[in-house]
């Protein structure tokens, strides 16, 4: 709804600017603490028209015309700023729109197919907290883009041709696979043992190199070994992702681009560029004129391809399958992703949109699968669930054990997802699970509890025979009621901004603000104990809040509980 208000303000302001004799490409509209929308267009036009911002704004303000039943109630000037305020018509229509659209409220009508690649962790062990930040950012963005209207396909790009997997294959031939462990953990143990041996006994390294070479040329026996190793590890990884409420539409193996000849074809195209040269037997691409100091290696001296080369082929293929490509990558991929984008641009191909995230850390320190120093995603969730159970046990002493376990389970997943997503991707963060599950902090449990409270009010009203059908929204006049309706109205605007800027943290912030706005309403405005003429309307507002809280939580990939 807020987007409709913004469109109307833009139309009114554009007309006034034209009538005042000005031309403005940018109306400089922003949300403001002093109004619902404010324009600083006077500042934009001042240099061009050699007048003060206030003088220009005054001329525009005099030409503003608001029609009856407009979403704009009034317009005011404060210094050089033009302030617009939401009308009663807008507030009423917002309430009715939420009740009518329900789970579809906030949906936009963006068009086009998006392929979003995320997680893509090497299948040599379980996911750890670093991988999970990638997964949560990717999954949440996919959900936001879907709500924005895009046809979204999520992909996991399996690096099956790297040395790590060859080490796993070699390890499975030389070390015992522990069938009592979760499969990705068992693979990790094999990988760790194999790496230690390869460091201590370097004479085995040529054996791994030979395995890599056989796989790249397509030796059937070696292919079967790689498939077994990868499928085994991926089974465990998929279990961890499902536990986090994360699913992928497709799993793309990088080897398919080697087998099809696409990697050789694109290497030939790159080699033909006048910026490619042979150095110490390896082919290098000079990207200095693209602002990138380091040359990109596309083929080793032994003639084998690199991950980058295969990734180039993968992106060339993806570009033919969609309108937008989005990659979620860690900060250690900044250079390689810029090289990839530059080379795709040189070749005349579509470039991916890259979301770079800084790493999330724990008090335990850094993590490395190779050295065996990591906390797996499963271990992390187990610890968070224990902490959540302690909180739930204290907060709800009268509830039975099964109920407490159920609440602890969905609170822990919500806490992990929310605490990761609330921070802008480009900022580093430390995950503190005790704070994440604190009901008093404004995190996932706080938002989930707001939804559960709304459900409880609706249920109690139903038990008392109170209905919110056919109520008059005009009587929702309290300060907290109006603030809550306005907050409900901006949900679609948040979806629009988050999908455009690829910043899922904007939705996390909104979820917290919406829960806080609902709690302020509930604290100061009686609902079931209100006078008869107010009950239905306020109950209707509770239902609106429940709907948008549920929509927001679902878009964040977090369970919206009816009780907790």
Stated plainly, the CATH topology of the largest domain is called: Rossmann fold
Structural class: alpha/beta
Shape: flat
Strand count, sense and closure of the main sheet? 5 strands, parallel
Number of DSSP E strands: 14
Number of helix segments? 21
Q: Rg to the nearest angstrom?
A: 28 Å
**Spatial order of strands in the largest sheet:** 7-6-5-11-12
CATH superfamily of the largest domain: HUPs
Fraction in helix: 40-55%
Notes on the structure:
It is a single chain. This protein has helices at 2-19, 41-49, 53-62, 88-101, 129-147, 163-174, 183-200, 205-217, 220-243, 255-259, 262-271, 307-319, 334-346, 377-395, 401-421, 433-436, 444-463, 479-489, 491-501, 505-524, 532-555; strands at residues 29-30, 37-39, 72-78, 81-86, 113-117, 151-158, 250-253, 276-279, 282-285, 296-299, 324-330, 353-357, 360-361, 429-430. By secondary structure, the protein is an alpha/beta fold. The chain folds into 3 domains: 2-86, Gyrase A, domain 2 (2-Layer Sandwich), CATH 3.30.1360.70; 118-361, Rossmann fold (3-Layer(aba) Sandwich), CATH 3.40.50; 377-555, Isoleucyl-tRNA Synthetase, Domain 1. Strands 7-6-5-11-12 form a 5-stranded parallel sheet, sandwiched between helices. A 4-stranded antiparallel sheet has the order 1-2-4-3. It has a 3-stranded antiparallel sheet with strand order 8-9-10, with helices on one face. Helix 5 links the parallel strand 5 and strand 6. Helix 12 (307-319) crosses helix 13 and helix 20 runs antiparallel to helix 21 (532-555).
């Amino acid at each position: 709804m807020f987007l409709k208000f913004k469109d109307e303000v833009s139309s009114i302001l554009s007309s006034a600017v034209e009538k005042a004799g000005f031309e403005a490409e940018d109306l400089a509209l922003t949300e403001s603490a002093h109004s619902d929308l404010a324009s600083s267009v006077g500042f934009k036009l001042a240099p061009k028209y050699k007048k003060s911002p206030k003088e220009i704004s005054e001329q525009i303000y005099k030409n503003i015309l608001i029609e009856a039943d407009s979403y704009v109630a009034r317009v005011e000037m404060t210094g050089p700023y033009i302030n617009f305020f939401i009308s009663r018509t807008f507030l009423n229509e917002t309430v009715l729109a939420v009740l009518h659209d329900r789970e579809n409220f906030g949906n936009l009508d963006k068009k086009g197919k998006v392929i979003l690649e995320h997680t893509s962790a090497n299948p040599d062990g379980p996911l750890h907290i670093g991988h999970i930040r990638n997964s949560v950012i990717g999954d949440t963005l996919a959900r936001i883009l879907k709500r924005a209207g895009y046809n979204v396909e999520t992909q996991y790009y399996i690096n099956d041709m790297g040395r790590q997997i060859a080490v796993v294959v070699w390890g499975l031939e030389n070390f015992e696979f522990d069938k009592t462990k979760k499969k990705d953990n068992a693979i990790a143990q094999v990988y760790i043992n194999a790496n230690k041996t390869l460091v201590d006994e370097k004479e085995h390294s040529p054996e791994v190199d030979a395995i890599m070479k056989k796989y790249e040329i397509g030796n059937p026996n070696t292919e079967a070994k790689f498939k077994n190793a990868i499928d085994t590890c991926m089974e465990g990884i998929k279990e961890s992702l499902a536990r986090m409420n994360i699913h992928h539409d497709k799993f793309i193996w990088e080897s398919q681009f080697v087998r099809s000849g696409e990697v050789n074809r694109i290497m030939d195209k790159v080699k033909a560029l006048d910026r490619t040269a042979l150095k110490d037997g390896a082919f290098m691409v000079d990207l200095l004129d693209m602002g990138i100091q380091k040359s990109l290696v596309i083929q080793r001296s032994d003639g084998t391809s690199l991950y980058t080369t295969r990734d180039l082929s993968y992106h060339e293929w993806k570009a033919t399958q969609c309108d937008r490509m989005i990659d979620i990558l860690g900060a250690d991929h900044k250079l390689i992703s810029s090289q990839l984008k530059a080379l795709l641009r040189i070749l005349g191909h579509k470039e991916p949109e890259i979301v770079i995230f800084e790493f999330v850390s724990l008090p335990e320190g850094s993590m490395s699968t190779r050295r065996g120093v990591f906390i797996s995603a499963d271990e992390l969730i187990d610890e968070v669930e224990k902490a959540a159970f302690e909180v739930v046990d204290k907060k709800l002493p009268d509830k039975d054990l099964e109920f407490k376990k159920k609440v602890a389970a969905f609170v822990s997943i919500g806490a992990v997802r929310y605490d990761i997503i609330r921070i802008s991707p480009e900022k580093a963060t430390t995950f503190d699970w005790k704070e994440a599950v604190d009901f008093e902090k404004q995190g996932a449990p706080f938002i989930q509890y707001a939804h559960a409270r709304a459900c409880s009010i609706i249920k109690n009203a139903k038990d008392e025979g109170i209905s919110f059908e056919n109520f008059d929204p005009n009587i929702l006049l309290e300060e907290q009621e109006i603030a809550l309706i306005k907050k409900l109205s901006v949900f679609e605007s948040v979806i629009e901004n988050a999908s455009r800027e690829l910043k899922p943290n904007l939705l996390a912030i909104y979820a917290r603000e919406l829960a806080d706005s609902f709690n302020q309403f509930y604290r100061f405005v009686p609902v079931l104990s209100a006078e008869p003429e107010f009950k239905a309307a306020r109950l209707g507002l509770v239902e609106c809040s429940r709907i948008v809280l549920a929509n927001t939580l679902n878009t964040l990939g977090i369970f919206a509980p009816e009780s907790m």
